[in-house]
Amino acid sequence: MRPALDIADIFRAHGPAWRLAQAGHLSLGQLKAMSAIEACRTAELGGHVERCEDCDHVQIAYNSCRNRHCPKCQGAAAQRWLQDRQAELLPLTYYHVVFTLPAQIGDIAFQNKAVVYSALFKAASETLLTIAADPRHLGARIGLTAVLHTWGSALTHHPHVHCIVPGGGLSPDGQRWISCKPRFFLPVRVLSRLFRRLFLDRLAEAHAEGRLVFFGDLAGLADRAAFTTRIAPLRRVEWVVYAKRPFAGPDSVLAYLARYTHRVAISASRLVSMDDNGVTFRWKDYRQNGAARRKTMTLAPAEFIRRFLIHVLPSGFHRIRHYGLFANTVRAANVAKARALLDAPAPAPATDANPDTAPVKPAITCPCCGGRMVLVEIFERGATPRTAPTRPAFGIDSS
Fold first, then answer.
1. Which of 146, 197, 287, 349 is the most buried (most CB within 10 A)?
2. Using CA atoms, how far apart are residues 226 and 206, in angstroms rounded to an integer?
3. What is the Cα–Cα distance from 71 to 62, expressed in whole angstroms?
4. Which of 88, 200, 184, 182 is nearest to 132 (CA)?
């Protein structure tokens, strides 16, 4: 069922005024995201018409925009990604570690997204791989999947990475599987301090190489001395590395990933209302506990759009990455070796190798009588279908 309010409604109602007011200040990626979200599952992108063989019910299915910042398109993308990952899960306890940048880095990160977000990924992954390899801790080569989120619950800029790590790894010679202690993976304080050093060193290196840009109130940070003075206090404070309770099992890891891998800054389910004065949405205040943390917030439409668009990632930037044993080029071989050492059977293949017995995609069923829907027409972008629906179209995505 279509939600009563979604991001596209807000963009269509207030986007034109926002674009006009911000002319020359929006990136191409932000403009593309807005346009894609507004057009998603509308006649502007084309689609097809289906008719029920039994009751002649007719419905229109509009195409999806497939933009990675569109809330409507992420469900199908997440399912495809999870199907690929399911065969790689090991029969182990998995741990969830979150690395967060201090607020003092936020404005620098906003003006240098690709450089700073990449440094965040690299520092977090190197921290886990280094501490895990240390014989004083685990003494093993581990693998991990990292997912970048750039938002807080109130849509503020809050860059952090969620790392999903199995509780163990291969011995240095690759002949044994070494498991971590029950319900304990790696010491958080040790992770925090190494993460702080690695990230700040990478940030200073990027500045020295001229890969950081500064404008507006931050223009003075282009001077190396000013930049060094700015980040010096951050070397003396504790950085937040949070190790959550381990997952109950591989199935719960998949359930978690389904919620987190393809999430956007805010989903339609959190939107409450919209009018000319503001957009109201639900959020969680993590400074409070229990029911008191669940609140609503109303932002002026322009501010809501601004907050949503600050989370648009640079073109081509990967926000899901794999490291160590799970690095793309060696993942299949390492997962197979881990399964052998753990004496765990390989999962059943996702599809039958024999095309004659491969599962067939189920037919779309009629919402009125349950009969089989058949394709009767395809129409191009911006065109109007010749066949009229038997009731108002409701944007089914079967593209």
1. 146
2. 15
3. 16
4. 184
Rounded CA-CA distance 85/145 in Å is 10
Q: Cβ distance 34 to 11 under 8 Å?
A: yes
Q: Within 10 A of 56 (CB to CB), how many other CB atoms are there?
A: 12
Provide the residue type at 180 as one letter.
C
Pair 125, 324: CB distance under 8 Å: yes
DSSP string for 234-259? GGSS---EEEEPPPSSHHHHHHHHHH
Tokens 């995609």 appear where? Answer: 361
Three-class SS of residue 41? coil
Residue 360: CA count within 13 A, CB half-sphere: 5
Closest CA to 318 of 158, 104, 81: 81
CA 4 to each of CA 60, 83, 278: distance values in angstroms, whole numbers, following the listed order: 19, 30, 16
- Please give the pLDDT value at position 389: 81
Interhelix angle 188-208/113-133, rounded to 10 degrees, is: 140
pLDDT block averages, 10 residues each, the chain of length 399: 83 95 92 95 90 91 90 78 79 92 94 97 98 95 95 94 93 94 88 97 97 95 96 94 81 75 88 95 85 89 96 94 94 93 75 41 77 91 82 46
With CA atoms as reference, report the closest residue to 259 among 149, 166, 113, 350: 149
The per-residue DSSP string of 121-143 comes to HHHHHHHHHHHHHSTTTT-SB-E
d(Cα 171, Cα 175) in Å, to the nearest integer?
6
Write the single-letter amino acid at 277: N
Instruction: Give the number of other CB atoms < 10 A from CB of residue 23.
Output: 8
387 CB-near residues (< 8 Å, 6+ apart): 49, 51, 58, 376, 377
Cβ atoms 148, 141 nearer than 8 A: no
pTM summary value: 0.86
Amino acid at residue number 52: C
